[in-house]
UniProtKB/TrEMBL annotation:
Cellular compartment(s): Endomembrane system
Family (UniProt): Belongs to the EamA transporter family.
Broad class of the protein's primary localization: membrane
Protein's name according to its UniProt entry: DMT family transporter
Length: 307
């Protein structure tokens, strides 16, 4: 278990790496022409393949999982699979900035559920920071918002995807109290991919016949936004509240919009750049009160305050 001094370095570093990694997700999805359910399925299964070398070392913990833990893993895996299915589908109907901006409603869902589920009472500064960040994120995608039926369909899919990942985050917070990041991530990824496979088979969506380019995209999604993004956020759930981990994800619209400019030639306006600054300012306000405390470090054996 990392000590307090190590955590004070690892947590900000993990947040920065995670935000940068998930910002590539929408770009990679746009590069693929495969069905979104297939992209999501292979993204998660290939992440499992990359994690396999460490499976034997965690077998003792796996053998001790209870029936309740397996049911919760199935539930969080289902929520994760549904999130990928809905959000990736939204990118077929709307722009990167519009889709990722609507995902910023995730921390609101998480905070509201946290108040009910974990009896967490948000501070005023947290509410202000979240409000500013969400406004900034929405402004990033505002110029792309359209009231055509196709765009509204994409926006709705992204919104439902945000709700699904909020459920995944909250269940993950509960499981990470007694489960390692490796075991939680490995089986939530695996079960999500299996549920997506069932969906593909039910819809008669081909599981094979994809070219080398598609497999390259699947592997990029597995390695970058899944392992360096979602895995790190799963690790952070042990040390931060679910709402705080969700807040760090708000950096994705800014990163994705800049990457879309560079890699997809989607234009970025000065208003969007200003909106990015507003977004990051809101995230800073929310997170500036460090959630870790030396006073409780001994109590949680190195974990953070309010974990």
């Amino acid at each position: 278990m990392p000590n307090f001094k190590m955590l004070s370095v690892l947590i900000p570093l993990s947040v920065a790496i995670g935000i940068a990694a998930i910002s590539f997700s929408s770009i990679f999805v746009r590069w693929s022409e495969a069905p979104v359910s297939v992209i999501a399925m292979y993204r998660l299964w290939l992440a499992n393949v990359l994690l396999l070398p460490w499976l034997a070392g965690n077998w003792r913990e796996i053998s001790r999982l209870t029936g309740k833990q397996w049911l919760l893993l199935l539930a969080t895996g289902g929520a994760l699979g549904l999130h990928f299915l809905l959000w990736m589908a939204s990118l077929r109907f709307t722009s990167v900035s519009s889709s990722t901006s609507l995902l910023t409603l995730e921390p609101i869902f998480v905070m509201l559920a946290g108040i009910w589920w974990f009896r967490q009472k948000p501070q005023r500064s947290e509410l202000v920071g979240m409000g500013i960040a969400v406004i900034g994120a929405m402004l990033i995608g505002w110029h792309d918002f359209s009231f055509t039926l196709r765009s509204l369909q994409g926006d709705l899919l992204s919104l439902l995807g945000a709700a699904a990942v909020a459920v995944h985050m909250l269940i993950g917070k509960q499981l990470r109290e007694t489960m390692s990041a490796y075991v939680y991530s490995f089986f939530s990824f695996f079960l999500a991919a299996c549920l997506l496979a069932v969906y593909n088979l039910f819809r008669s969506i081909p599981l094979g016949g994809y070219g080398l380019k598609e497999w390259g995209v699947f592997m990029l999604l597995a390695a970058v936004p899944t392992l360096f993004g979602h895995y790190l956020f799963n690790w952070l759930l042990k040390y931060l509240r679910a709402a705080s981990v969700s807040m760090t994800v708000l950096g994705e619209p800014a990163g994705s919009t800049l990457l879309a400019l560079i890699l997809l030639n989607e234009p970025v306006t000065y208003k969007q750049l200003l909106a990015m600054m507003i977004l990051l300012f809101g995230v800073w306000i929310f997170l500036r009160k460090k959630e870790y405390s030396r006073r409780k470090t001994h109590k949680l054996n190195g974990s953070l305050d309010q974990a």
